Amino acid sequence: MKINSSETIKRILDDCRMIAVVGLSSNPSRPSYGVASYMKRRDYKVIAVNPNETEVFGEKAYASLAEVPGKIDLVDIFRRSSEAGTAVDEAIAIGAKAVWLQEGVIDEAAAQRAAAAGLLVVMDRCWLKEHARR
Fold this sequence. Notes:
Layout: H1 6-15, E1 18-22, H2 31-41, E2 45-49, E3 55-56, E4 59-62, E5 74-77, H3 81-94, E6 98-101, H4 108-116, E7 120-123, H5 127-133
Helix pairs in contact: 3-4
């Protein structure tokens, strides 16, 4: 499926209920917090992946995707573009269904690696804005 296609976005929003948010902060002023709290209010399961956090939304935060127990559908990436590739490679390694590089996060090579591995891929888009648009 094509990166950023409307069909890719629809499938992710409809089918990916277990979401690991890489870079999720416990600071309510951070964009990752606002997007993740919106996800939670829409009944998505949100897991924080950030080595600098111990708990977000009253739930355990994990230092890496590999530490998260259970199956992850979507890896939503709130990291600098230069660091996004590492999270994408971890998402491929754990068998996630999809990766979403948030608005402003661009790594063409990582997006291509994920697509080649069979993951659904969205890049440089805001999950919240796409969900609200529906």
